Amino acid sequence: MSDLNVIGVVGAGVMGRGLAQDLAQHGHKVHLIDIGKEILDDAMRSIRQNLRAQFLMGKKADGKSVDEILSAINPSTDLAVLEDADFVIENVTENFDIKKSIYLEIDKICRPDTVFAANTSAVSITRIGSQTERPDRVLGMHFMNPVPMKKTVEVIRGYHTSDDTIGTANKLLSQFGKESVVVSDSPGFVSNRVLMLTVNEAAFLVHDRVAPPSDIDKIFIECFGHKMGPLATADLIGLDTILYSIEVLYESFNDDKYRPCPLLKKMVDAGLHGRKNGKGFFEY
């Protein structure tokens, strides 16, 4: 098991920037990759703001300053910088064709021993691994948002994923304060196979005018002790991502219980994606 000093993070969206921040805070050198300089500039500004907020709340990072942590992150639009990466975590859009294009490239760029982890909530890890010459070194790592605050990761073993690869992933997770629950590759894995059904059914309750979103979430928070209701959780994840995940489950299992709620489809078509753009089931 090689040293895991240099980590590639492909995709500088909400999850990618959270990962880059968390890894850099724990002493890793990070290559943060995305297609545009504007996206990367925005990601670095966001990470700076998040670090300052943490420091104001008294959460220090082993005596490192904000600038020292940021200096460990190398933002780049060029996948070629991943040639020295010990481990790569991919966080691009939940679309297989887009992911496939990434893996075809990085498989040629990275060392043969470099592990690839797909941070996905729905796409098959076995299918991703089959796009590479190293399917035994490909696995899923489903991080939760916000990454720096969530200490447990759903790790997914593809058909070919080796025990050594699972061990390497667990070693990396331990290096930045996280633990894993290892599950087998199946549509939605554990978390989303249950969560997406819950969110979809909650959306049907709004659609059928059984109760408004605030009351639905109140029942889960005050009756069951959940920290957040299913509809606020959907807004946090992004309703477009929620809809895509439900559609994958519906197509994968051919089971009507995963039929997407018409209201959810309508909201996504209307551009109501949740927190990311200010309005979903709630306004932000």
TrEMBL record:
Domain 3-hydroxyacyl-CoA dehydrogenase NAD binding: 7-185
Keyword check for Methyltransferase: no
SUPFAM superfamilies recorded: 6-phosphogluconate dehydrogenase C-terminal domain-like, NAD(P)-binding Rossmann-fold domains
GO molecular function terms listed in the Swiss-Prot or TrEMBL record: NAD+ binding; oxidoreductase activity, acting on the CH-OH group of donors, NAD or NADP as acceptor
Record: residues binding NAD(+): 11-16, 34, 94, 99, 121, 145, 276
Superkingdom: Bacteria
InterPro entries, A to Z: 3-OHacyl-CoA_DH, 3-OHacyl-CoA_DH_NAD-bd, 3HC_DH_C, 6-PGluconate_DH-like_C_sf, 6PGD_dom2, NAD(P)-bd_dom_sf
GO biological process, any: fatty acid metabolic process
Listed name of the protein: NAD-binding protein
Entry coiled-coil feature ranges: none
3-hydroxyacyl-CoA dehydrogenase C-terminal domain location: 188-284
Pfam families assigned: 3HCDH (PF00725), 3HCDH_N (PF02737)
UniProt keywords, alphabetically: NAD, Oxidoreductase
Marked site positions, Important for catalytic activity: 142
